[in-house]
Amino acid sequence: MSDAAHTPRAPRTDAAPRRIGGLTVSPLALGGSVFGWTADERESFAVLDAYTEAGGTFIDTADSYSAWAQGNSGGESETVIGRWLAARRNRDDVVIATKVGAHPDRRGLSAATVRVAAEDSLRRLGTDRIDLYYTHRDDESVEVEEIVGALDDLVRAGKVREIGASNLSAERLKASLAFSAREGRARYVALQPHYSLVSRDTYEGPLRDAAARHGLAAVPYYALAAGFLTGKYRPGAAASGPRAGSAARHLETERGRRVLAALDEVAAARGADPATVALAWLAARPTVVSVLASARTPKQLPPLLAMAGLALTERETELLERASA
Predict the structure, then answer these.
(1) Strand ranges in the chain using DSSP code E only, listed in sequence order
(2) Which of 1, 115, 2, 36 is nearest to 294 (CA)?
């Protein structure tokens, strides 16, 4: 029997689409960091097929994925996604988000870098437009006026539909939005913050307040804390895998152990996977429109997609928030 025969059918995820600016996206954004890294092209195509067959429409990547892997130079994920789009002829059916500023050959956010990096991404993706273009991390050596101006040029040229920012301070976000309003330029509509049950202070506070005040949509990354919130990593068990070190370090903290116990309690009561519960909690947080998670194989998708159908009770939410405080 083939692997496909043993793979549970992924639950539908298109029942509750969300809005990011003028884009309609699914509750789960499929992370592309694994494509061309821990998932080869065949495996990546299988994940992308399973995700879209389940109703998923929001695919996230970056020009730098996966430059950190031996033998890679960056752009591998975009290239795989571009080949998949060409093979499936479904470009108009999906929202593609990518990022600029961290590719080894295109570092920073000068106007010249943004312009050339966008052309590189368009070529690798095999498309004429990027639906959502994020600055990957802030470049404080460049004034926000230059960064937003460069992104605005891409929007005016029809090469980018909406713009967003990742790893940006509340102060720089507010300055960027003020410039956009003052000069009539494209404005950020999305943030991609580091945010999860074991990393709340990386978003909650001034940045989330600014996002709420200005109507920005949040799409958190590290939503499962490098796999820790799947429940895969347990005290006393040997950790393995490319992200094991990052995930297992949460076992060394009291908060991490509390969160794991709370997830187990809620998951057992609801007959759900811990990952489903963790993503459902995150998806219900203020300003969060979609949550970002990746899968190396189709078998890893069902618990991620199931979060769209899990509404936590007030008691369950309070239990998780006390544990993660």
Answers:
(1) 18-20, 23-25, 28-31, 58-60, 95-100, 102-103, 106-107, 130-135, 160-166, 188-192, 217-218, 291-293
(2) 36
Distance of alpha carbon 74 from alpha carbon 63, whole angstroms: 6
Whether the full predicted model's pTM is greater than 0.90, yes or no, is yes
* Domain range 16-192, CATH architecture: Alpha-Beta Barrel (3.20)
95-100 vs 23-25, strand pairing mode: unpaired
Place of tokens 């080869």: 40
Helix, strand, coil abundance in the chain, percent, nearest 5: 45, 15, 40
Every domain of the chain and the residues it spans: 16-192
pLDDT digits (tens, 9 = 90+) for 92-128: 999 999 999 999 999 999 999 999 999 999 999 999 9
What ranges in 75-129 are assigned the alpha helix state H?
A: 76-88, 111-125
Q: Is 88 exposed, middle or buried (0-12, 13-18, 19+ CB in 10 A)?
A: middle
- Taking a C-beta distance cutoff of 8 angstroms, is the pair 324, 296 a contact? no
> What digits encode the pLDDT tens for the residues 146-183?
999 999 999 999 999 999 999 999 999 999 999 999 99
Burial class of residue 128 (count of CB atoms within 10 Å of its CB; 0-12, 13-18, 19+): exposed
Strands 58-60 and 28-31: parallel
- Distance from the first to the final alpha carbon of the chain: 46
265-271 mean pLDDT: 98
Structure tokens at 208: 């989330």
Cα atoms in the Cβ-side hemisphere of radius 13 Å centred on 292: 25
- Residue 91 amino acid letter: R
Active-site residue numbers? 65
% pLDDT > 70, the chain: 92
Would you place residue 13 in the very low, low, confident or very high pLDDT band (cuts 50, 70, 90)? low
